[in-house]
């Protein structure tokens, strides 16, 4: 049975709750980008009564006070997420900019919300006239706005993507004028590494050389050192042992057989694909 109902349906059900002396706890909010702070406040709110009812701001009401770029999740998505919370009994979506109308209709025994609500919030007098207990919880350090800022900050960080070649393959490719030009262009946006015959890895255009116990350990060490992101990088080789090592650490393996007459054509197709 869905927890998402209209206020009229809830009021009909509330008659039975009153007959059974069930205490109604009311909360109001947008609950956009549901996070641990929401989980905590909902758990605490349910302790104050038997039936927890959420007044959920509609999309249009959120846009009026948070701007046209909000909400992140629409009202159906937000309501669906809240439905999964075991402490919530009913969810009522309301279109108004404030929920005071619903305070008069529902007349809850308890109203809970975060301390970020103003002490003289609109509709407080209605709740007090109906002898409703007001409970305010300390605001969680995390909020939807914090999460959005975190996402923006993380997305602005340029992740390093690597192209790792075995040395004989790279030398063969670099000797071709057309391929060499492509590699030069690619080196401006990706780090290029060469694996020598004795399994040392060095960065093209740098004196930096790294060698651990094996290729897997070397790749893991380089990822830990922030040289590149493993699953955004490619290991390009004609050696089957290197291809298997790449698979172990989630580096994309690209096998090219230098004896294949279409070797160059295949490699150029691959390069063109990752340059898009």
Write the topology of this structure.
Elements: H1 7-19, E1 24-29, H2 36-46, E2 51-57, H3 59-66, H4 75-83, E3 90-94, H5 100-106, E4 110-114, H6 124-129, E5 133-137, H7 144-155, E6 162-166, H8 167-174, H9 177-186, E7 191-195, E8 201-203, E9 209-210, H10 215-224, E10 234-237, H11 240-248, E11 252-255, H12 263-275
Parallel strand pairs: 1-2, 1-4, 2-3, 4-5, 6-7, 6-10, 10-11
Antiparallel strand pairs: 7-8, 8-9
In short:
The chain has 276 residues and is α/β, with parallel strands linked by helices. Helix content is 42%, strand content 18%.
How would you describe what is shown here?
This protein has 276 residues and is of the alpha/beta class. It has two domains: 7-153, Rossmann fold, CATH 3.40.50.620; 162-275, Rossmann fold. The protein has helices at residues 7-19, 36-46, 59-66, 75-83, 100-106, 124-129, 144-155, 167-174, 177-186, 215-224, 240-248, 263-275, and strands at 24-29, 51-57, 90-94, 110-114, 133-137, 162-166, 191-195, 201-203, 209-210, 234-237, 252-255. The strands form two sheets. It has a six-stranded mixed sheet with strand order 9-8-7-6-10-11. A five-stranded parallel sheet has the order 3-2-1-4-5, with helices on both faces. Helix 9 (177-186) packs parallel to helix 12 (263-275). The longest helix is centred in the N-terminal third of the chain and has 13 residues, at 7-19. The radius of gyration is 30 Å and the shape is elongated. The protein starts with 6 loop residues before the first helix and ends with a helix. The model has no long low-confidence stretch (mean pLDDT 87).
């Amino acid at each position: 049975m869905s927890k998402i109902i209209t206020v009229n349906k809830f009021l009909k059900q509330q008659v039975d709750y009153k007959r059974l002396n069930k205490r109604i706890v009311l909360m109001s909010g947008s609950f956009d980008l549901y996070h641990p702070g929401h989980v905590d406040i909902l758990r605490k709110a349910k302790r104050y009564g038997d039936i927890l009812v959420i007044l959920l701001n509609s999309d249009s009401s959120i846009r009026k006070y948070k701007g046209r770029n909000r909400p992140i999740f629409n009202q159906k998505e937000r309501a669906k997420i809240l439905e999964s919370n075991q402490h919530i009994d009913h969810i009522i979506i309301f279109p108004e900019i404030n929920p005071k109308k619903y305070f008069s209709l529902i007349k809850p025994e308890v109203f809970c919300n975060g301390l970020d609500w103003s002490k003289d919030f609109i509709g407080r007098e209605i709740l007090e006239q109906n002898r409703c207990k007001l409970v305010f919880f300390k605001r969680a350090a995390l909020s939807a706005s914090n999460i959005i800022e975190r996402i923006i900050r993380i997305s602005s960080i340029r992740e390093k993507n690597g192209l790792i070649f075995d040395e004989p393959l790279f030398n063969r490719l670099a000797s071709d004028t057309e391929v060499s030009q492509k590699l030069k262009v690619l080196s401006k946006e990706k780090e290029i590494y060469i694996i020598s015959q004795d399994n040392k890895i060095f960065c093209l255009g740098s004196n930096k050389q790294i060698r651990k116990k094996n290729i897997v350990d070397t790749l893991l060490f380089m990822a830990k050192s922030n040289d590149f992101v493993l699953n955004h990088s490619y290991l390009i080789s004609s050696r089957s042992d290197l291809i298997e090592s790449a698979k172990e650490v989630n580096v994309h393996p690209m096998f090219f057989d230098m004896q294949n007459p279409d070797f160059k054509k295949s490699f150029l197709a691959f390069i063109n694909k990752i340059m898009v």
